[in-house]
Write a structure and sequence with these properties.
Largest sheet of chain A: 6 strands, parallel
Radius of gyration of chain A: 20 Å
Largest interface: A-B, 78 and 78 residues
Oligomer: homotetramer
Distance between the termini of chain A: 56 Å
Strand content of chain A: 5-15%
Strand order of the largest sheet of chain A: 7-2-1-9-10-11
Low-confidence stretches of chain A: none
Order of helices and strands of chain A: HHHEHEHEHEEHEHHEHEHEHEHEHH
């Protein structure tokens, strides 16, 4: 088999505007089990969107964009249904930035010889393939961006903004969350920024600089910036896909504000779509009720949906999109707020 | 109910030296399903330990130390059965450093009113309780350490070494992985270092410094340092408990070495204990065979064990401990190696 | 709190005709992970329906009808999209027959004191409540039916047909799978028939009869009857919701036919919606590829969908309904075939 | 590859007497998450054993004996740590009876071409292989036993007793739960008895008899017999491995006794080892607290352990064995009780 044959059928991103899940969600709200939970999560998300003053934070973990959920996220940004993004590195760099550079994800299969794939430089994500060669170009583009920046500690948000600027200049037509957020001043935080293609790019940059001044990624600055957004915002709502670091990071900011001496409200709304379960004590699966004991998430409007995101998230997002509560929202432009405070 | 009543029965750490799982593991190797997988993982870990030149990297994710696995990790470090640790922040700071300061985790229950806990400042981790007040002292100790350091970008490893020094001076008797690793020059990396109590401590430090020079945490430096260890080491073995960022981070270094122009072997050995499953495409659950397609993990000596870590890890660790292959191992002192290269 | 207050909001059954999932399914087929699996399962089901000669067997396990999936099953029967049903007892008796007698399932919550529920005679199914008193009437109705039948061994199918006749005479307007199948001669098998409300009814009957002749339930006869259907049918397709006994039972008939000396094809098509996973060796989660080694399920057109049924099944069923391939199908009336062979 | 090569390394059964899990269990009781749950389940089982009057019912589902847990069950029967068994069919017939006839289970792998296995008549159970030819002999032996019995409706218990007699006469040295229970008058119930190799055997018998009198399997009689045991017993304890029909069946008997006009206690003790989770509403995973709302399981001494049985059950059973509370227990000989009532 040839590499070209295995990288043939592209993954396409689902368009939540092309179908209306409203009648199905309405019915699911009358049922039981995860159908009812999913419907309730959709209602809570719509409630967040209806309250103009609520800052909505989207948390992303898992291989979501390689699986076809990128366009969905772009649509949420365009409709002001998301004001801040906190994500794992792979989604933002290896998947979004990667596709913005013109590369693709392909239909694959888990029933295949991984040694054969390795020899062909094909990387597998469960049932999806990409070319390792393409990914290396993505790494090197990050190096190029780092090389071009004044050497100093950056928050991941600042660095991702620079990636957005790179796309704006070189790939202005790309369908990209980074680009869309750049244009709309929506901050993107990646708390473990070196844990992805960006990490490869950055160590190349740092290695080259040797003992000279270089770009560094200050993860504490990320936490401080996100906390500043929480402090200036009365109420916040969380839309969490998967768990992991993004979930924990964003839940922590209410406590962080307190530590810095500011009284803030707990996150008022919170929904999470996950397949994890809570019984092993891992964070990804810790329930939103448990988060309440920590003073992180308010009770009342929180809902877990135990379902894989490629099925559940389009259903929920299509519902909230078609309810049109977002039409009254305005962009919050938190990048401007943070950059101004910086100066 | 009073707070004191809920924080009464302390979690105690299991001692893998106090029982010998060898006969049970031997039998499990003759069975099927997860028993056989667990036995095979134990064999592979013993194989890693038997090869003196193999650098063994322990990856930790999930609330493992609050659940009683801290002493187990200390014993592995003491017996040179671990040469490098890569962990989530909570385990190292909120749990290990926290207990080293004299605080405790307590038996709790998930069947309780979380609003009541919140009012009492009790934080819940599934069936475990801690005092939020104690945790705040932990945060502030991190601030104090940051305040005392020369302002510059630090890898998490460097900062955690400073925490070890703090314990060495102020709590020399503490039962602590950080302290033990400090004394034995074992590096600890936390790729998402702000995503825990350390984050709280660091933003207090940075906020106080304002525009002045300050301590920053450079996650790219972490990645570069871990890659340097991989480059100087012929062979590596991974012992992964849970998935998440630590798993991904450590798997990536074989590719990172390649990006920096060094030909290195894939990780030769890899075991993972997890309850996640692979079907949602999340990293925590991606199988070690999938990692092989990326050129990260060699095939042949890899084994997933689908079981909760509090049950599976003591069985495996007790087996390898009692096999005594570790008695021939010498400390690798990778902290010295990295600090020398720094200068 | 009063019992009436807890049994207030009725579960309503989703209507797959009221929304068209086609555009969503089409998009999901271009994605990855469970979205793509779900789309492929929908395509395979449509393929079964398109081939007039394929006998479609619906397997049901889990509390599906109490959760709002009863109407969906009725619609499948009405459209000849199902030719045989194999189910767990609770779905057919405690849920379908129960509702046909006029009783209801109600919105409940898992976050409640189960001892309080017990005292109120409210039974909980995760987040759903029913009245134990209503269920006892259901039990007794089964006793009455048994009392009215000539004493002899019955297959569960024969007994359920008698329950259909009871509904036809006494509750002709009921929305019931049993009733619909009775009217359309669709056989329903419940291989563990005593393991539900029917069991309660039957032991009352048998206890009353003492040593006299009585109605007995011959589970071997079930197996023989289902095997006879397989023998007379060229090709079969399985639509499995959950696993358990129904899944195993129906897969076994291809081997059973062979044991009886008839060469038959493996099941040509098979889809399964489940949240179980395969790693513990339990039947519910054994993959359809594993079934192939046993010569039960053919390879090529089989698909697992790892998703909770209340979400996945309506999406799939609505798609197949709106494709209209079913309009060319005719009822197979397997009850008549079996009853004739009986005589 | 030849069939003989794939069927080479036999599965061996773990011997809970050969290692003492007591120190490990004691430590696990001081930890958190599933370790603590497992320790608590072991304590509860020991409590059941300590109370001589408690009838202990062991429920088995999943491929437990093919995975090496058969000897464990035999030891529990020999030590009077089990008074009644309720099981899925495969465990008792396809696995226990199968091995008693001299056949074996073999180490296999899930990473194999199932079509190749099918052509070789090798059946796969996750990572275990058996010869389909051997299984056919097992089926036919059931036919032979059925042929030899007076035609009438039998409970599965009665039929399994006849299988025990067959072993007693023809394979008196076999290591078999059926044989051991036969010798000690321990009843074994299989509520879905046709759903396994016994089903194949029985339909051959019934087909041969045609319209003549034949052996039938009355599942209602099973339920009635088990309920009679509950009625004559003050207190009962449940040890459940997996869920499914056996779990539901045995939980139902407290309600069944009530339906028959007898006031009985709920099951006083209940432990369950499972990997299922409760969120899809399936029975296997419904928690023991939920069962309490139905009046089936008492609260106070119930414990779920979320762990695969091949790991958890030997740990628990070895603990209870070595505590020696069983030494005061006497055999309950419920087969005699039921057979006397029959006459």
């Amino acid at each position: 088999m040839k590499k070209r044959q295995l990288l043939k059928k592209q993954i396409k991103h689902i368009d939540i505007k092309s179908f209306d899940s409203t009648p199905m969600i309405k019915s699911m709200g009358e049922m039981a089990f995860q159908a009812r939970n999913l419907a309730r999560a959709a209602e809570i998300y719509d409630k967040m969107v209806s309250e103009e003053d609520v800052t909505i934070i989207l948390c992303l973990a898992g291989s979501l964009f390689s699986a076809g959920l990128k366009k969905l996220a772009i649509d949420l940004v365009r409709c002001n249904m998301v004001d801040v993004i906190v994500s794992s590195g792979a989604i933002i760099v290896d998947q979004d930035f990667f596709e913005a550079l013109g590369f693709k994800h392909y239909h694959g299969t888990p029933h295949i010889d991984d040694e054969m794939l390795r020899k062909m430089s094909i990387d597998r994500i469960y049932d999806t393939f990409i070319s390792e060669d393409d990914l290396r170009i993505c790494d090197l583009t990050v190096t190029k961006i780092a090389d071009s920046l004044p050497p100093r500690p950056y928050s991941s948000r600042e660095f991702i903004k620079a990636m957005g600027e790179h796309l704006y200049k070189n790939h202005p037509e790309a369908e990209s969350v980074i680009l869309e957020c750049y244009k709309r001043d929506v901050p993107i935080f990646v708390p473990a920024f070196s844990d992805c293609s960006a990490g490869f790019g950055l160590i190349c940059h740092q290695q080259k600089r040797g003992k000279a001044e270089k770009v560094t990624i200050d993860s504490a600055k990320d936490f401080l910036e996100l906390t500043k957004i929480k402090i200036k915002t009365a109420d916040t709502g969380l839309v969490m896909i998967g768990g992991g670091v993004p979930k924990n990071f964003v839940q922590d900011v209410t406590v962080a504000a307190d530590v810095l001496g500011h009284q803030v409200n707990m996150h008022k709304y919170a929904i999470q779509i996950t397949v994890a379960d809570e019984r092993d004590g891992a964070l990804s699966s810790s329930t939103l009720k448990e988060a309440h004991s920590w003073g992180k998430v308010d009770s009342g409007f929180e809902q877990m949906v135990f379902c894989e995101a490629t099925i559940a998230f389009p259903l929920i997002a299509s519902y909230v999109y078609h309810r049109k509560s977002w039409q009254k929202r305005k962009p919050k432009r938190n990048n401007r707020f943070l950059d101004e405070r910086e100066d």
